[in-house]
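Hi everyone,

Forwarding the result from last night's run.
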Amino acid sequence: MTDLPPNTALPAPAEDLTGTTHDGEAEAKPEVGVGPWEGELPEGEHWDPDLLRDGDRRNVVDQYRYWKHEAIVTDLDSKRHEFHIAIENWQHDLNIGTVVRTANAFLAKEVHIIGRRRWNRRGAMVTDRYQHVRHHPTVEDFVQWAEGEGLAVIGIDIFPDSVPLETYDLPKKCVLVFGQEGPGLTPEVHDAAVATLSIEQFGSTRSMNAASAAAIAMHAWVRRHVFQQPVS
């Protein structure tokens, strides 16, 4: 693919460029994205002519600057990892958007919403446009789907029978399931899971934020199956 041309960033709108210092003077804010393409236009079906002309201010890595949305998704699909993420959504959990954003960062195969179809997308920061999200109305529907795909259902929560994530050898093909913030995993998911894992904590609180737990679990999978780090 063609590299980005040098010095392609254009100033953002005035309201995004200036702030106020303690002395009352305006100060520059960081520019976002890149401006119009400079020089001879690149060739290829993946380039977006509108973005080449107007600039690309999206929240994407430099590799995908000026690419069509569909081309980015297609490229991501060609190299997604083999783990899935699922989160229960019975009370409109505000963590889901952040979980989707993290799943995009770690290139999860899919994110699964169990329960209510609608979820708060604010925390996703538009990354849900690049991440496949599937809905399951019930736990039974989700479990049947996972079994049909040959995926091990792994719960992440604190139960008497939970085993440490840090010493558990995560299977390559699995779906990591997180419960609602507060009540945690439902008994139905707990019963369906081949294992329930806990994350070791050392402070005074009994539990951590579900989105934080999801990030830790995804990174554990990446360390095991991308970097080939064995567990002890």
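The longest strand covers residues 83-89.

Cheers,
N.
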